[in-house]
Write a structure and sequence with these properties.
With 182 residues, this protein is an alpha+beta fold. It has 5 helices and 4 strands. It has helices spanning 13-57, 62-77, 79-82, 133-141, 163-167; strands spanning 83-94, 97-107, 147-156, 175-181. The longest helix is centred in the N-terminal third of the chain and has 45 residues, at 13-57.
């Protein structure tokens, strides 16, 4: 039986290889943690916007809907410090015209609706709504005065690991957005 004798040149080779492997492993673990959190947060947001639009369409006031959605986010999203909930009512005015007729928002960050704004609020000069084609077709085919409710959530996402420092800030978006129409 022969035994291998380690020469002085090879004594630190395993330690160097292990350090490279650990760095790569740490990057993977950090990525898994933060990407997993991001996927979870997006799923929570999708559920919240659906519930918010559903509540508003069943007659809950826009302000109460915002309060409920913000509270339902709980500790998962902490909307009171890192997010914004906006509920918008879009009404068929007849003749193919749709307009924002009501809007309420709340949360810890300022946000501007991607759906539209209520004329006269802030710097809003027009109540024209921007909806997906299917929502426009559906709303304009309904009787005049019909309303669709859109709930939007904006959320500032912060990583808890140094993954963005290692790979750059373009790896993960800093703000998530979700919207649902009912």
């Amino acid at each position: 039986m022969t035994t291998k004798v380690m020469h002085g040149k090879e004594s630190g080779q395993a330690l160097i290889e292990l350090s490279f492997a650990l760095v790569i492993l740490c990057v993977f673990v950090c990525g898994i943690i933060d990407f997993g959190r991001a996927i979870y947060d997006v799923q929570v947001m999708k559920n919240l916007v659906g519930e918010g639009s559903s509540m508003a369409s069943r007659g809950t006031t826009l302000g109460n809907t915002v309060t409920t959605v913000t509270a339902d986010a709980g500790k998962d999203l902490s909307m009171s410090t890192a997010g914004c909930v906006m509920v918008t009512a879009i009404t068929n005015m007849g003749g193919g015209t749709i307009q924002v007729t009501g809007q309420s928002s709340g949360g810890g960050i300022s946000c501007t609706s991607k759906v539209g704004c209520l004329k006269g609020q802030g710097s809003c000069g027009s109540s024209t709504a921007t909806l997906p084609a299917l929502a426009v077709t559906t709303l304009t085919s309904e009787v005049t005065g019909s309303t669709i409710y859109a709930t939007e959530i904006f959320y500032n996402f912060h990583t808890i690991t140094p993954i963005t420092a290692l790979l750059g800030s373009s790896v993960m978006p800093s703000q998530f957005y979700a919207v649902a129409y009912y």
